[in-house]
Amino acid sequence: MRKRNRTITIRCTDNEYERIHNKAQRHNLSLSDFVLRSAMDKKIVLADGLNEVAKQQKAIGRNLNQIAMLAHEGRLHSVRLDELVEQHKAVTTAVCDIAKAVR
Q1: pLDDT score at 87
Q2: Reported pTM
Q3: Annotated domain spans of the chain
Q4: What average pLDDT does range 59-79 have in this prediction?
């Protein structure tokens, strides 16, 4: 990771400061990261709903791991994965929708 060892000081009005600070918060970035990305012409992307989709993906993964563990232990012989597959399709569709919105 690079070490940030230089300081740039700027002056702005209270209104300008609030606007910049609010934009940084909306993008879940520190003020420093937001200003640097903006100044370096880097794309700043806000993907609404991504955290919820990630939670759903983790839950599906946990369920799949539990099924695999039970199968390996010999405590599970057949499984209907219809519901899990449908959940996965819904989450994948949500990820695609978020990706389209970000472009």
Answers
A1: 87
A2: 0.51
A3: 1-45, 50-102
A4: 88
Task: Please give the Cα distance from 62 to 68 (Å, whole number).
Answer: 10
pLDDT digits (tens, 9 = 90+) for 5-44: 999 999 999 999 999 999 999 888 899 999 999 998 887 7
Residue 73 tokens, joined: 């232990």
SS3 of the chain:
CCCCCCCCCCCCCHHHHHHHHHHHHHCCCCHHHHHHHHHCCCCCCCCCCHHHHHHHHHHHHHHHHHHHHHHHCCCCCCCCCHHHHHHHHHHHHHHHHHHHHHC
Q: How far from the centroid of its chain's Cα atoms is residue 82's Cα?
A: 27
